[in-house]
Amino acid sequence: MNQETLLKLQKYASLVVKVGVNVQPKQLLVINSPVDCAPFTRLLVEEGYKAGAKNVMVRWSDDINNKTYYTYVEEEEIKAFPDYLLHQFEYIVREKAAVISISAPTPGLLKDVNPKKMQLSSIVMNEKVGFYRKHMMGNGSQWCVIAYPTIAWAVKVFPNLEETEAFNTLLDKILEASRVRNNNDPVREWEEHIHILAKHNRLLNEHQFESLHFKNALGTDLTVHLVENHIWGGGGERSQNDVMFAPNIPTEETFTMPHKHKVNGRVVSTKPLNYQGKLIEDFTLDFVDGKVVGYDAKSEKEALKSLLELDEGSSRLGEVALISYDSPISKSNILFFNTLFDENASCHLALGNAYTMNVVGGHGMSDAELEAIGYNKSIAHVDFMFGSRDMEVVGTKKDGTKVILFQNGNFVI
Ligand code: ZN
Ligand code: ZN
After folding, report:
1. What is the dihedral angle through the alpha carbons of 69, 380, 79, 59, rounded to the nearest 10 degrees?
2. pTM, 2 dp
3. Rounded to whole angstroms, how far apart are CA atoms 234 and 249?
4. 246, 190 contact by CB (below 8 A)
5. Tens digit of pLDDT for each residue in 167-204?
6. All domains of the chain in start order, with CATH
7. Which of 54, 300, 328, 333 is least surrounded by Cβ atoms within 10 Å, i.e. has the fewest?
8. Is the dihedral of CA 303, 254, 93, 40 positive or negative?
9. Can you tell me the distance from the alpha carbon of 334 to that of 161, in angstroms, rounded to the nearest whole number?
10. Are 223 and 263 in contact (CB under 8 A)?
11. How many whole angstroms from 160 Cα to the centroid of ligand 2?
12. How far is the CA of 348 from the centre of ligand 1 (A)?
């Protein structure tokens, strides 16, 4: 690694620790990292201690071992979730640790794995450590998802480049999208960026639209009702222990909570969806009263079916997000095969679980109260992209007033 790259990576690590999770003095920092990302993870560990973390715990993972596991493991073993893992998650929640997760998936790696085993694993994980998911999705403590290339990922994104070149190019694109350059102060730039996102959130929160209507030439014609007292979020967030943090680096989105029973019409995807290692392409979903009642896909329709049939909530929406078509990631015109990037290129929806932070008082509501307001619950939360160059979005208020929010794919408010 040359000196220039090392300096940029140190800036990136510092950005993630200071702005991403904003680790506090004497706080525990947890890093979920693929083994291939070890050189960068070592920089994160050091930045973590420098920022005052009392300890930095790294939870290593390996995609190849993961695939081997699913190939050979018996279902009985998946069900027998070991205590030591449970205790690890309990410890992280009890400590209110800050959690950094490095996203570097290998697209298509798990495509031949029996989907039933992965589904069973999701169900068991939810039963045993659902409390961890609830803690994190409710911003119980700070968390941040970032990316770092692996060769396996890079050659999927740039199939015409040789391995090292593909890796370096993907690293450049990740740093560019994360606003880390040779000659800038990314921490300061992020503060400004978060400020702009906060402005969109504030305007949308003031409007309190009853519904949004999406329409484009591809065939999307969808009305999404929002829950009452919804909150638009995105960019910077405040954890329950009152610390500002940025859950995604990069991020361009402003998002809120759809009503689980009030979505009607058709949505047409504009980017492939990488789900459990399978690439679902050119798909449509038809909604009636919030539920997908019809669907089609040019490829991997079975994977889409398995997502929609995973549980009651996986065929309903948990998130609607607005992103200008002219965002930097969209302009790069690269398909990253990684939701963290691709979702920031385009307006998106998520099938599955909603975020309690997207409604006033949501963190303190019981399951029954959440159900009553139209909050969607699922073990899945899968984003898919449907924004386009010609997307029109119109918001309708309770009194019937209409406000144009998007024209030709971009925010006009
Ligand atoms: Zn989103
Ligand atoms: Zn999402």
Report:
1. 50
2. 0.82
3. 11
4. yes
5. 999 999 999 999 999 899 999 999 999 998 999 999 99
6. 3-177 (3.40.1830.10), 205-235+250-411 (no CATH)
7. 333
8. positive
9. 14
10. yes
11. 30
12. 7
